[in-house]
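Quarterly update from the structural biology core.
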Amino acid sequence: MEISVDQIKALRELTGAGIMDCKKALQETDGDLPKAQQILRAKGIAKVAQTVGREVKEGLIEAYIHSGSRMGSLVELHCETDFVSRLPEFRELAHQLAMQVVAMTPHFVDRSQMPEDDSRDPEEVCLLQQPYIKDDSRVIQDLVTDLSARVGEHILVRRFVRFALGE
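Predicted structure, tokenized:
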């Protein structure tokens, strides 16, 4: 099957992957966009696994104040280089994380921070395991992993804090 430029462009917009990677994935799946997206995601996860352990010294702190100014959050998001920390996609991820913290009230970044005797569901209390508020078919870790794969750097949610008036 011949892969069109429009198919490659559509997959590239969905995944942020390179043109040749998109073309190869589409060829492997005979033009099936969802399957090609899964292949690229799997390859991206493999790339991300290679970046884990690298030192993350750059990043930013994002603030979000919910309408009505009665609750807000701060999220500290790290990456390897200041170049990546200035990317609009990185800033957008930090903003989405800060909104998630306000909406879902997590207590921990991930399972590793939970005390062993804590019987609560990690999907409720761990930010990275929570379903994404804008697309409940994905968890927050997927957002971090996807961006990490696109930029080729280790991205880490270091910490967050949530404020609510009267709490």
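The CA atoms of residues 88 and 94 lie 10 Å apart.
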